[in-house]
User: Which sequence fits this backbone?
């Protein structure tokens, strides 16, 4: 059953801690994306990767880092430098960088205590 | 400033009461307009992609249309299970390539 999985579903972090959100896809998609969703705002792009071992900053990359060592995996680390990390984080992928439609995972809700 | 605006922010319908959601955009160089459905606490589910003015797509009780300035998501005889937030996103050309901009969504509630 192909799809995108994100883990954990809920994550709690103390201030000053780094946390890593997992995103895995078995769709054989080349491109993967990380978005942040806050109430009353549209999805905002954090980072994206069009190919293994390559990634680019999105609109709100400060305080975040990523890696793309495998085609199927695109983990996101929320560092202590991110001032307001509490949000719903969504991972997406698409077949090819020039393809149109992005498909989303189920999301991870991060709460900073 | 290029942007995507969805209206209304929230809509409450009675079961069977048809209506439309609006997504207007001011971007130039449109490459595609996307509609997604999002249930609370879940990721967006892809519904439609529209590429050019005059294009229409249908799926069950939903029909999406596109003009040069806006898109409509028509919901015919809605049922309670259609309750969700509907997101619109626009893909457009920039100097650095394609960019995808999301609207803030319309929260739809269908009541019995």
Assistant:
């Amino acid at each position: 059953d192909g799809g995108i999985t994100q883990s954990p579903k809920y994550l709690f972090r103390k201030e000053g801690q780094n946390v890593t959100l997992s995103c895995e896809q078995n769709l054989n998609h080349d491109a993967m994306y990380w978005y942040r969703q806050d109430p009353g705002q549209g999805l905002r792009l954090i980072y994206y990767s069009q190919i293994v071992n390559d990634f680019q900053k999105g609109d709100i990359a400060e305080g975040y880092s990523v890696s793309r060592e495998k085609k199927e995996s695109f983990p996101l680390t929320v560092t202590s430098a991110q001032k307001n990390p509490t949000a719903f984080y969504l991972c997406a992928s698409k077949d090819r960088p020039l393809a149109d439609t992005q498909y989303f995972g189920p999301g991870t809700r991060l709460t900073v205590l | 400033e290029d942007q995507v605006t969805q209206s209304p922010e929230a809509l409450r319908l009675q079961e069977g009461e048809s209506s439309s959601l609006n997504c207007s955009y001011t971007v130039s160089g449109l490459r595609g307009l996307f509609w997604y459905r999002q249930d609370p606490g879940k990721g967006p589910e892809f519904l439609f992609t529209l590429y050019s003015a005059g294009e229409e797509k249908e799926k069950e009780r939903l029909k999406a249309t596109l003009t040069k300035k806006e898109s409509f998501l028509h919901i015919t005889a809605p049922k309670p299970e259609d309750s969700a937030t509907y997101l619109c996103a626009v893909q457009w050309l920039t100097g650095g390539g394609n960019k995808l901009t999301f609207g803030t969504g319309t929260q739809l509630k269908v009541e019995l």
